[in-house]
Sequence to fold (260 residues):
Amino acid sequence: MSKPEFVYVTYVETTPEKLWEALTSSEFSRQYWFGTELRSDWKIGSRFALVMNGTPTDEGEILEADQPRRLSCRFRRVLNDEMRNERPTKVVFVIEPRQIREADADP
Amino acid sequence: MPKPGYIYVVYIQAPCEKVWDALIDPEMTKDYWGRHRNSSDWKAGSRWQHEDYDDASQVAVAGMVIENDRPHRLVLSWARPESLDDPDKVSKVTFTIEEQFGSTKLTVVHSELDNEMLRGIGAGWPAILSSLKTMLETGASLPMTRRRWKSGN
Fold:
C-alpha cells in the first residue's frame, strides 16, 4: 500500500532565485515559519535542521539541491524520543517559472 | 465508486468580507480569474454562471446557488452549461471563509468531479486562488490571470 502524500501548488509573483532564497535562508524563514531557522549548507548529502527559538525541531539530510529549481530533503521530528524513532518523511520543492498554458487551465 | 474531490486551502491577509466579495465582484474576478465574472443574484436556489467579462454570452460554467451565508460559506453546483441536466457531470464547489489568528482561511472543496473536470480544475484553482491572495494583499493580481485562458468554451 502506498504511503500518503500531500501536494500543494502556489503561484508567487517573484523570481525562482528569490523563492529559492526564501526557502533556504533563515532571514526569510524566521518571518514566515513561526520563527524557525534553517541550518544547512544545502549540498547533496549535507545535514539539514530546523531550529525554533534555539531548539532543534527537525533533523535530516539534503537529497537534491538544484538551485533554483529543485530542493528535496528527508527529515524527522526530534522533539522527543518517540518522534526520533518514527520513520523520516520527505519533502520536495519544485520551482518553475511559469505562465499557465491554455490547455491546462479550466475554468 | 465515489467521484474524486479536490481541496485547496490558502490564508489571506484580508477580512472575511473582502475575500467573500472578491469571489463575486466582476471588477475583481476579471483580474484574477482569467477575465471572467460570476453572475447571479446569489440567492439560494438562483442560477449562477461563470462568463466572459466582455461577452456574457460566453458561459464557461453554470449551476445553482445552493447555500449563501456571507461572509463564511458559499456553495454552488458547477457544470459545463451543456451538461447541467446530467447529474454525472454536475460537481459542487464549497467556499469556506474563516477568521484564523488574525488572517482569513479560505478553503475551496470541489467535489463530485468527473475525471475531465478534475484535470481542468486541478490546474485552475491554484492559479486563480494564488492570484486572489496576491491581489487582496498587494493590490495587484498575477498578470497571467488577467487574460482569458480559453477562447469561447
